[in-house]
Amino acid sequence: MRILKLCLLAFSIVVISCKDDKENAQAEVVEKEFAIDYEKFTLGNGLEVILHQDKSDPIVAVATIMHVGSNREKPGKTGFAHFFEHMSFNDSENVPVGANRKMIPEWGGSRNGGTSNDYTVYYEVVPKDAFEKIMWIDSDRFGYMINTVTKAALEREKQVVKNEKRQRVDNAPYGYTDEIIRSNLYPEGHPYNWTVIGSLPDLQAATIDDVKEFYNKYYGASNATLVIAGDIDFEETKALVKQWFGEIPSGPEVEIQNPKPVTLQETKSLYFEDNFAKLPELRMVYPTVEEYNNDSYALQILGQLLSGSKKSPLYQVVVEEEKLAPNIGTYQSSSELAGEFIFRVRANAGVDLDSLKMAINKGLERFETNGVNERDLKRIKAELETNLYQGISTVLNKAFQLGMDNEFGGDPSYITKTAKLTNAVTAYDVMRVYNKYIKGQNYVMTSVVPKGQLDLAVSNAEEAKVWIEEVKQNVANEEVSQGEEAEYEKTPSKYDRSEPPFGDLPKFTMPEIWTAELENGMKLYGIENNEIPLVQFDITIPGGHLLDPENKAGVANLVSDLMMEGTANKTPAELEEAIGLLGANINMYSANEDFHITGSCLTKNFDETIALVKEILLEPRWDETEFIRLKQALETALKDREANPNAIVGLVYDKILYGDNHPFAVPASGTLNTVQDISIEDLKAYYTNLVPAKASFHIAGSITPEQTKSVLATLNDWKGEAVAIPEYTINGNTQKDLLFFIDVPDSKQSVLNIGKLALSATNPDANNLDFANEIIGGGSSGRLFQTLRIEKGYTYGAYSGVSNSLEMAPYTVRSSVRANATLKSLEIIEDMLATYAESFGEDEVTLTREKLLKANTRAYESLGAKLSILRNISKYGYSQDYIEKDQEELIAMTVEDYKNIIQKYLTEDDMIYVVVGDKATQWDEVQKLGKTVIELDIFGNRVVSQ
């Protein structure tokens, strides 16, 4: 995984000075540097530690940045940094086996890690009572894990990483493109010549000695930054850090890597036939500069200017004029040693990529002729100002920012310099970097086309070489187990390194919620939060997909798209510019049961942002040209969806559960069949459903109720009576013991959805079913994850849960498993569901209660999470203290309560099984499960045997 760093912008404040002689106040705009407060110190072992205090929520975030990524690997040993990240989460000397993945969620926390070209990061967010426990578990993973590595653990984690690669690369459309680009952009031996996940043959060959060598070389304390942010006391935290981390060995000095930019001697054009892709895709990648290079800021803005708006030349030519693709992206991607400027276009079905390449050239010529528009430059900088605040809106994001800037920029407060450098970019700088890195320069170009459509590739392209794994049905050499624990002598310590106790239990309390109502009938719900000068808002209008005309699913979705394409008084480009100059974000989308207008902006721009929302709502443009373009873009997206096994399984699953006559049997975005006859008149007719009666306005952020109501008074001009929402009968499958199979040839994994319709969010049992699911499918500590991934190595992840809606919603078990472990995975899930009620005892009651109560302390930190509280109250009629009442209900739950809920809603033989995989190898296998097996196509239609 890669955590992208935001380029940030200095902001302005207004200072009012009043003279004693009562002369008129004079307003002076002054620039204030943006900064995150912190304290930094270095332990004797070289570990650099950064502390940030934020007492707004009773939580603490911890991030450890190891200065080692795939760029430290060698050919023949690729993928090792990422593999070691996985190994680090297994065992350590003073922590129980498997505790890292299991115990942290049980404490109410979240945890994960990620590896990039340049670093490996480990991070957690926990309630403050578990803070010292995180010090214990994190320091043990960092400094005391290497002696616990066993052959069994090594082999088990190899299977997990293989499953991750199959899920993200092998079984995904365009999954091999990054590998093709890297191997051709960077010469052999360059640290970026291979992907972060690396080569599976290299991984399979890894030994325990390799693991130990890597740890000893790169996992010293002097090669890391530790950041702790949240509700902490500095002096207490310093003492804990010294105790838990101070004895970790410094490690050998790690050689500093200097930037290694590359220069291509020629342009390379390559093609690849993709087994999953349904659309042709073109990428062009130019070598540029590394992170923190001054030119990277101008290149970032160049990317926005070339394609980031409707006025941009590439958008105008590729999308609007020649109608070759629904969109185009250009952006700068910088890493520690080098950087890339990327053009990426997924074209419409059947588009010849030669024509697309010509259109890009035409757009670039237009940019060279017209140059940089100063107004566009101003708009981009305004957008970056808002991004500044959004990028540090949680304690974990602050920890990332401080840590990355310390480890790679040499200064935790580099954010201030980044802001200045971004703000200082001129039109001249943008043209200079364009001429230096793009115009007339060599690049790597890839034409990835659907299988059997080589005629769409760029002419004279050479075939790309990619190693593709063959997953064989014989799984004997891929079976893994927990195995024996390692035998070793514990590393001596002057401290007691056993598990520390919890601190004082932090109690979650609902934020104060205010409500009001406009004259037009729209209800207002708000939470004032003054941590950052930002607001997020959402208007929810009942209806959504439920109000789509019969056989025209996708109308509401298209309405939400078209209404953002200008107003009666503004062209699409002018509306986009008006929003951008405010640094605001306004969007619309349609869900199954609701239509939404969402946005965010700096508090100072709220009134102007709402003025634009009003104009969008009340003065739609109904631009026929934009309608045609958007409909084509939707059809392209729907065609692209046919390439995604996860999308396929979801579409078919819903169709079986809800039945053909229910709207939820078809996605809210529609299908190629349902959108083909949609006209702009259908959209205009749907627009009459967008009325304020029964609508709700939700807002969270740095704004008072009085300010909000004053600004929103302008929306009283929006009128309309409530619309009746139709009710539908569910007529889905009622047969038992059915397994539906969808063939996607050569799939390296099988995608599984197993479940049944359960209940509505308004059902009194809804909370109890959520509670009851926690043990079996609630994250990495759930039985599904622990068994299928940790014990068996069959998958990268396995989860379950019930979704929220007014309509009856399904309970679903989800996973993607190694193809040759499909049957064994299904058998495990079947048995786990069938025996769940009888296996639920007092220990599970206690664990569920403690886990969920503590998780609430961190669940509502962000403005988006606070908006979700307000949406739940307005949509489902929950009380303003519903979370606290849910907690009381949880505390009162008994073993018998849990057993009754499980038996009522999670009966295994009532559930359907949907499997998307390779029929050639898995059809006979799934027959052995003992269920009636029915083959469907990717649209959910029965396949008639020949």
Automatic annotation (TrEMBL):
<protein>
    <submittedName>
        <fullName>Peptidase M16</fullName>
    </submittedName>
</protein>
<feature type="domain" description="Peptidase M16 C-terminal">
    <location>
        <begin position="677"/>
        <end position="851"/>
    </location>
</feature>
<dbReference type="InterPro" id="IPR011249">
    <property type="entry name" value="Metalloenz_LuxS/M16"/>
</dbReference>
<feature type="domain" description="Peptidase M16 N-terminal">
    <location>
        <begin position="49"/>
        <end position="173"/>
    </location>
</feature>
<feature type="region of interest" description="Disordered">
    <location>
        <begin position="478"/>
        <end position="502"/>
    </location>
</feature>
<feature type="domain" description="Peptidase M16 C-terminal">
    <location>
        <begin position="206"/>
        <end position="384"/>
    </location>
</feature>
<dbReference type="Pfam" id="PF05193">
    <property type="entry name" value="Peptidase_M16_C"/>
</dbReference>
<feature type="compositionally biased region" description="Basic and acidic residues">
    <location>
        <begin position="488"/>
        <end position="499"/>
    </location>
</feature>
<comment type="similarity">
    <text>Belongs to the peptidase M16 family.</text>
</comment>
<dbReference type="InterPro" id="IPR050361">
    <property type="entry name" value="MPP/UQCRC_Complex"/>
</dbReference>
<dbReference type="Pfam" id="PF00675">
    <property type="entry name" value="Peptidase_M16"/>
</dbReference>
<dbReference type="InterPro" id="IPR007863">
    <property type="entry name" value="Peptidase_M16_C"/>
</dbReference>
<feature type="domain" description="Peptidase M16 N-terminal">
    <location>
        <begin position="531"/>
        <end position="649"/>
    </location>
</feature>
<dbReference type="GO" id="GO:0046872">
    <property type="term" value="F:metal ion binding"/>
</dbReference>
<dbReference type="InterPro" id="IPR011765">
    <property type="entry name" value="Pept_M16_N"/>
</dbReference>
